[in-house]
């Protein structure tokens, strides 16, 4: 499962089941990972999270930097500028986001 095309092809249910099997039933990590079709490193990471009291959630990609409200505000600003026919380029969008983040010390 090392290619990007197969990334995240396991379900959250199978992840929770594999973590439960390792922590409660004593099944080996290798066996639980293979049976759930989950990368062993991913399973190990979620086992550590479960042991520290954090929930088990399938979440791919980088963590969010902006809150949902900040992201909505930023989208609203950009869409407003677009509606006013500013003709924003990709570089313009990057500049707007950068200034927004500076304004909120992000």
If you had to describe this structure to a student in words, what would you say it looks like?
- The protein has 106 residues and is an all-alpha fold.
- The chain folds into two domains: 4-51, Arc Repressor Mutant, subunit A, CATH 1.10.10; 68-103.
- It is built from five helices and no strands.
- It has helices at 12-23, 29-36, 40-51, 68-83, 90-103.
- The chain starts with 11 loop residues before the first helix and ends with a helix.
Low-confidence stretches: 1-5
Q: How many strands? A: 0
Quickly give the CATH architecture of the largest domain.
Answer: Orthogonal Bundle
Q: What does the main sheet amount to?
A: none
Tell me the radius of gyration: 20 Å
In DSSP terms (H or I, runs of 4 or more residues), the helix count works out at 5
Remind me, CATH topology of the largest domain? Arc Repressor Mutant, subunit A
Taken as a percent bin, the fraction of beta residues is under 5%
Structural class: mainly alpha
Distance between the termini: 35 Å
Provide the succession of SSEs.
Answer: HHHHH
Shape: elongated
Average pLDDT metric? 83
**Oligomerization category of the chains in this entry:** single chain
- CATH top-level class of the largest domain: Mainly Alpha
Q: Residue share in helices?
A: 55-70%
Count of distinct structural domains? 2
């Amino acid at each position: 499962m090392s290619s990007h095309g197969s990334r995240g092809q396991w379900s959250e249910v199978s992840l929770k089941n594999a973590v439960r099997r390792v922590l409660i039933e004593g099944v080996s990590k290798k066996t639980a990972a293979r049976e759930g079709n989950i990368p062993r490193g991913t399973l190990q990471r979620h086992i550590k999270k479960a042991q520290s009291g954090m929930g088990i959630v399938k979440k791919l990609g980088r963590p969010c930097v902006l809150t949902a409200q900040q992201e909505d505000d930023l989208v609203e600003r950009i869409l407003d500028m677009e509606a006013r026919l500013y003709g924003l380029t990709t570089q313009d969008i990057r500049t707007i986001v950068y200034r927004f983040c500076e304004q909120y010390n992000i």
